[in-house]
Amino acid sequence: MSPAAHSAVDGLDALLHARRDAYRAFYGAEAARVSELCHRMAERFARGGRLIAFGASAADRSDVRHVAVEFVHPVIVGKRALPAFGIGADEVGLVCGGEDIVMAFGEDEDERERGVLRAGVAAARAAGALTIAFAPVGAEWELRPGTDDPFVAQELVETTYHLLWELVHVFFEHRGLLEGRSAGAVHDTGASSFLYPFLAEAEDDLGAVLADVRASVLAKADEVGALRAQTLGEGGAVIAAATRALRTSLDGGGCVLALGNGGSATDAMDLVADLRHPPARSAGAPLLRPRRAVDLTEDPAILTAIANDVGHEAVFARQVIAYGRPGDVVVALSTSGGSANVLSALAEARRRGLVTIALVGYDGGRIAAEHLADHVVVTRSEHIPRIQEAQATVLHALRLLIEEPVP
User: Fold this and answer.
1) What are phi and psi of 289, to 5 degrees?
2) pLDDT confidence tier of residue 256, bands split at 50, 70 and 90
3) How far apart are CA 306 and CA 296, in angstroms?
4) Rounded to the nearest 10 degrees, what angle do helices 206-234 and 3-46 cross at?
5) Which has the closest alpha carbon to 166: 86, 87, 224, 85?
6) Of 261, 265, 300, 302, which is closest to residue 61 (Cα–Cα)?
7) Dist CA 395 CA 270 (whole Å)
């Protein structure tokens, strides 16, 4: 392995340690509150409430879109779709009602962003909504990541709203634990009991269910830690090579074209935001330079026009044709490794001589099996939220490593 590759692998080890420590500290302190918040959110949803998300910065708005798509389009088989959408901060007071849940994304270090968050939260509270934030901006429920590393903070926030989405469903299986609802038959979990044993419990013991949900929060946080270690460990050499390709492209005036579907689309959105608008870093850490990047999931008019007139398979490939130039890099995100529109985009990029980087889950799917990208990082899991969380770490690692070896 070359000295540069060794440096990249050492940097990935440092990233792993930072996340391990941050996750243990955060969930050790907050797991019980996260479980209680799941219960409070379930009560609001059961009474007809909606989840309304807003954010201050471009990166925050990727989380806004991510949390909305997870609730509306659940990937856990058999779980209900829940109403959720993202809006602008100045629209909160216009659309939210008393049973709604309002989730604010952003830090409070920037004065302008702090004002945006506080105003949105204040409007939501005035309307009677349940308010959640990840910074001290006046929300009833504030879950602060407790780290000055913006990338670690974002990953903690992403894991937390994934857990809220996954575990809020537990309480729908216990109607008697929701305020104003009568108890139903105890749910028979059958073969899935090893995953969610608390679903078979009686409906009159809220404390026991909350304790089990808290244990599940901790177990899932440990799960993503192990999956992150697998991804960076097995993929270290690939990530180092992808870093070199990205740096060469960007230093030569190239552009990153990022794409994905659903939650992966929001991760593409986050990568582009981090490239265009690098976050402020802790004192003493070198500043990151703004870099050229285009989000191929960004424009709904383009996406719907291509999907309607040509077909969904072409929504990214047509944009690669339009925007791709020699020296550019396509970064494709896919939890399955087999989405038709992602495969089509990678094929078009390869025909045009663009460098291709793919982050995939499961066993890598067709992308890995058929070597459809130049650099393929595989996160070996079938649990989509955990895949996305581990992939977020890879994206953040790439963002750092193209500028400098991670300390």
Assistant:
1) -80, 145
2) very high
3) 12
4) 160
5) 224
6) 265
7) 9
